[in-house]
Amino acid sequence: MAKLGRRLFPHCSGYLLSALVLLVAVLVGGAPTTLPPTTTDSATAPPGTRAMWVWTAADPAAVVTWATTHRVTTVFAYVDPQVATNGDLPRLQELKRRCDEAGIVLDALGGEPDWALDHARALAWQLAVRDTGLFHALHLDVEPYALPEWNTARDATVRGFLTLLDEFIRPADQAVEVDVAFWYATVPVGDSNLADEVLRRADALTIMSYRDTATGPNSILDVGADLLGRAGRAAKPARLAVETQPLADCGYCTFAPLGAQRMERVLADVDRDAQRYNAFAGIAVHGYGSWTALQP
After folding, report:
1. 111: left (phi over 0), alpha (psi -120 to 50) or beta
2. CA-angle at 73, arms to 140 and 216, nearest 5°
3. In terms of C-beta density within 10 A (0-12 exposed, 13-18 middle, 19 or more buried), how is residue 101 classed?
4. CA 258, CA 294: separation in Å to the nearest integer?
5. Residue 152: what pLDDT?
6. Domain of life, per the record (predicted)?
7. Cα distances (angstroms) measured from residue 207 to each of 125, 220, 228
8. What pairs with residue 239 in β-bridges?
């Protein structure tokens, strides 16, 4: 586990990574939760650890300047499956160079809901990413519940998603981190559930805990607690995540109406209280474009 922690979070000290080897069970439930007691060196990342999705062909200099200013240590940069021929490779090479100079980890971001059923497309993307030689790890954003088949053929869709994770070829030096909905434990998979089955396969999780308060009912830590606990028991690092895009159908799921200063205060509270969880690996912000557009 210490080796995996170093692969995913190379900037963490050995002292912090030792927590990954000494993980203990954390009791959580699906309902609003009492936080577990603080333990020494419990989390895998210190307060202030940030990651960031970059879905657009943004200017590398601007991305890295924003990242360094906002304590982002990992960037998930979208890679088109046609990266070798679509003209975007030089920009990604420049992004890699600047990230290396700034000490920022660069991971390849990709995913479509239908990858859960069309594995060939997913595996072709993975090979295209590997051929660039630019990326530290792979970051999968495959949300099978966005497919019509989630409602008409859920069992088959879930099996397809898990089989995709099984089939994903993993080079020895490249980890696979998976975006997950916080409610995956409510989806049965035989005698298990989707949360635990993804944890069996993934090297790390990013929990889409999209809420605009730190603690209390329906907060970031409330909705994220179940998967943080499961990740701890599975000895897998897990990030919480917040949204900055405007969402017309869920005002409390995003910081777009609240602004950057409010978000920073809330994230500081999350950092403080999430240190209780052995799996906690920092907070990912979705995403670069909308984050930079937040009002103060």
Report:
1. left
2. 75
3. exposed
4. 8
5. 98
6. Bacteria
7. 23, 10, 8
8. 206
Give phi and psi for 92, each to the nearest 5: -65, -35
Could you read off the pLDDT of 193-209 as tens digits, one per residue?
Answer: 999 999 999 999 999 99
What SS3 class is residue 156? helix
| CB atoms inside a 10 Å sphere around CB 153 | 14
The whole-number pLDDT of residue 153 equals 98
The average pLDDT across 74-96 equals: 98
In the block, which residue shows the tokens 């390849």?
108
Contacts 24+ apart (CB under 8 A), 219-225: 220/266, 220/270, 221/33, 221/35, 221/270, 221/273, 221/274, 222/32, 222/33, 223/182, 223/183, 224/182, 224/274, 225/28, 225/29, 225/33, 225/35, 225/277
- DSSP character string of 94-124: HHHHHHHHHT-EEEEEE--GGGGT-HHHHHH
- Using one digit for the tens of pLDDT, what is the confidence trace for 224-245? 999 999 999 999 999 999 999 9
Specify which residues 106 forms β-bridges with. 75
Domain 2-23+35-292 fold: TIM Barrel (3.20.20)
β-sheet bridge partners, residue 284: 51, 241
Identity of the residue numbered 55? W
Distance of alpha carbon 37 from alpha carbon 18, whole angstroms: 19
- Ordered by start, the domain boundaries in the chain are 2-23+35-292
